[in-house]
Amino acid sequence: MVNEYEFSRNFLIALSNWQNGWSENQVDRRKIGDELVLQCELLPEKYKKVNQPCYRKRFILYGELVPIILDNDFFEGIASWTADIEYAKKFKGIFKTDTKFVMVFKHLPKPEEVVLNLIELWKEEAFKNAVNEFEKDDIEGAKALLHFKDYQSEIILRSTLKGSEIIDIVGVSSSFEEICDLASIPEEKREKYSIQFARNPNGLPIETLTFAGKRPTRAAIKKTLAKIKETFEIAMENNVLIDRSSVIKPHDDDLKHRR
Predict the structure, then answer these.
(1) Do 65 and 116 share a structural domain?
(2) Does the predicted model carry a pTM greater than 0.70?
(3) How many CB atoms within 10 Å of residue 19?
(4) Which has the closest alpha carbon to 21: 36, 41, 42, 40?
(5) Which domain holds residue 191?
(6) Using CA atoms, how far apart are residues 62 and 64, in angstroms rounded to an integer?
(7) Angle between helices 139-148 and 125-137 (to 10 degrees)
(8) What digits encode the pLDDT tens for the residues 69-94?
């Protein structure tokens, strides 16, 4: 039994397993998520409320782009978000060889979407005491809890990714010449600026992966939607079917958590 003075061992194990991760094994992720949801159902509602925006950086597979951008709805199951946008951007870097895009989402959760607010949880002395007691009994089991604590500003949600909530994307920054062109810098001054830039450790990134920012992100999303619309219009004009076989659908084991 869990009340405001007591947190069960099963809950602590489930949360520790979640924070310990699953090495990209989605079968393990779903099993761990299922158990965490089950244990969180016993917690007081005060640990399942969020009154601020949450952020999630997501490495996007090619087949996920259409439901996110076009359908504005891709349910990914139980997932970790954060109240700290800078932490979201830094988490796990910005490049993976097996993914197509990197996007940052901003979402204000509905009450039914919140599984657990760890920010509120770590404010509770009873929870801290329970973790300390758990550590005495199972040092290995408590490692993840004590390692992460609340510094991730983590909020666990029943998570839906929406194109309308994309606030940043990762892209390759412009070349030095392109930046000079945009700034209307004359050719005769570019060599001087190039030397200054090379010596400045805080200079702009040149031809490297970086976050694009809000305005370029909005432009990229608009361009993508226009391209998808064009594809559909051409298909209708030529009376041909559009192949959506590569589109990824939410997994049934994730969909059971949708409310």
Answers:
(1) yes
(2) yes
(3) 21
(4) 36
(5) 174-203
(6) 5
(7) 140
(8) 989 999 999 999 999 999 999 998 88
